Amino acid sequence: MTRTSYLAMATSALTMAIAAMGEDLEELKAYGRHLAGECTSCHRPDGAPSAIPSILGKTQDEFTALLTAYRDGRKTNQVMISVAKSLDDEQMAALAAYFGSLPAEGRDSGLK
Ligand code: HEC
After folding, report:
1. Does domain 25-112 have CATH number 3.30.365.10?
2. Which end of the chain is more exposed for a tag (fewer CB within 10 A), N or C?
3. Burial class (CB in 10 A: 0-12, 13-18, 19+), 74
4. Would you say the CB of residue 63 lies under 6 angstroms from ligand 1?
5. Residue of minimum CA distance from atom 18 in ligand 1
């Protein structure tokens, strides 16, 4: 097979993967909503000011970067380290999709 056809195959596989991701976003969010019960005992689901930072309305990248930072110990909050260590990548993505879809009212309220 030529290099070009490998490239064509890889490109169409990628396009298909991206299309599937779009269809699966609602499913991912639903899974995230299901998992969110573990989080909302501390993080308010309405984004109202509280002592614990709001996790609503973040981008997928921002959200997973924060959780990954706890998981690998760059952020040192013990509670969140154990929470993050209990999540696999799919669960993080699902939680990011769900919480990211909620309006970020009350975020950066200065009342952390
Ligand atoms: C027992 C309480 C508790 C639970 C349960 C909890 N968190 Fe947290 N979370 C915190 C606290 C406290 C902080 C702030 C820690 C710090 O200062 O680094 C935090 C920080 C975060 C941050 C970073 C926020 C920011 O803007 O810096 C994210 C993201 C997060 N939590 C996600 C989650 C997710 C997702 C879950 C559920 C799977 C969860 N948390 C469950 C208490 C909790």
Report:
1. no
2. N
3. exposed
4. yes
5. 77
Tokens (6 digits) for 57: 């309305």
For ligand 1, atom 34: residue with the closest CA:
39
Residue 81 CB less than 6 A away from ligand 1? no
Domain layout of the chain by residue ranges: 25-112
Within a 10 A sphere around the Cβ of 15, how many other Cβ atoms?
Answer: 10
Tell me the C-alpha distance between 74 and 76, whole Å: 6
- CA-based angle 28:14:61, to the nearest 5? 45
The predicted pLDDT at position 98 comes to 97
Report whether residue 84 contacts ligand 1, using a CB cutoff of 6 Å.
no
* pLDDT for res 24: 83
| Mean pLDDT in order along the chain per 10 residues (112 residues) | 75 71 85 96 90 95 97 97 97 97 67 40
| pTM score, whole prediction | 0.81
Distance between Cα 106 and ligand 1 center (Å):
16
